[in-house]
Amino acid sequence: MKAVLYTEYGSPEVLKLGEVPKPVPKDNEILIRVRATSVNYGDLAARNFKNLSSSDFNMPSPLLLLAKLAFGLTRPKRPILGSELSGDVEAVGKNVKRLKVGDRVMGYLGQTMGAYAEYLCMPETAPVVKIPAGLCYEEAAVLPYGAIMALPLLRKLNIRPGQKVLVNGASGAIGAAAVQISRHFGAEVTGVCSTPRLAFVKALGADKLVDYTKEDFTQNGETYDLIFDVLGRASFSKTKNSLAKGGVHFYVSFKTRQLLDMFQTRDDDCRALCGLAAGILDDLFSVAELIEAGKLRAIIDKRFPLEQAAEAHQYVESGRKQGNVVITVN
Fold it and tell me: Which DSSP category does 136 fall into?
């Protein structure tokens, strides 16, 4: 089967179309014929992981070495990128009960990746569900990752109707999902992004927009019940005056400084919190329900065929994308 491989770290040019054996599903696995996948931050970081600096790594620096050991210190251990996908179930193992041949599915692979290929196998217990009615393959391929990360975190934060939520990093996969899910919970949402992506974030349903290239949201006098910080770029020392009484600055990505802020503000009127989502099957079921209810949608910017995966990465890294970027397979 065809797959986009990378055998060394570096620029998009390291992505090459090649041939690898077609996988065979185990007793508890399904074989998926991939129809579409996406280009996300994780794909870009993994492709160039050897050169990823501690400042670009969105977790405490000591974990960077462990991550590099997992991905490969000098050469990639996982030569096929792609953490989310849509496709058709082509075969099932003998113990599979939940899904059947012919089902249209979407799924999230996490750090195992592997979606830049014509076929892949997933355990039936993994985050893979039937595509909601009315959703095309391209849309289904770009929704799982961001939504499966944002939804459980926002649920824990107990957003209530009428609250004011600011999403810092509103144009990325997690941020775009957070804007829509916060609106679903009844919040007034402000999205922070750069100039080229303002229209995209507005189309997602943001009530207000902040262009961070022109305005610092911590200096505009507004206060929020929740600051949902996707990339952890805003320090709590700067944002605490932008929080209402009892407000929370929640870090989806965080370093040691944010962890210290979380423990030091435990009893304060305003708090810093850090959290991670597990990315489990039950959460993807909930995501599918939101999609079916019309509360979560994808906005596609560009589509690239599998053989142009390098061009897709170049486009995303150029900073020009204004929505989701899809890689189509067959």
Answer: -
